[in-house]
Write a structure and sequence with these properties.
single chain; 137 residues; alpha+beta; 6-stranded antiparallel sheet; two-stranded antiparallel sheet; elongated
Length: 137
Amino acid sequence: MLENYSQSLLNLVRKHANPLAQVIRRSKELNVNKINFISNASLEFQLDQQYSSGTLIAGCTAPEHKSAKFQNYKLSISRNDSCCILKDQSVIEMMNFALSSELNQYVVIGQRYQKKNDFFQSPCSSSLLNIYVVKNV
């Protein structure tokens, strides 16, 4: 997960001078446009990597999948990519994608982290960039 995020930070840097300032500026630009992106985003997805040994909760059944591909991103249960920030800003570790027999649709099965702290404070709070240290699943 850290490798993917560090690559996305590197993509925000265009020149060698003042990389931190560039990341902060580009991040602010992305956050300003985030609402439009989400409202226009397609919720269509394709489930990949079917398997049968994942975590299931009551009301969920096979088929189970390891990843879900959307138009602009991919959610996965692999160790490096399994964390996700929800709309309420809580962080979860995804453990499975399974069919809910009650809702008649696919759901994400995961565990919410109980503690979320900034990764760094200087020159700005890392939470402004949605970067956190999480503990206690």
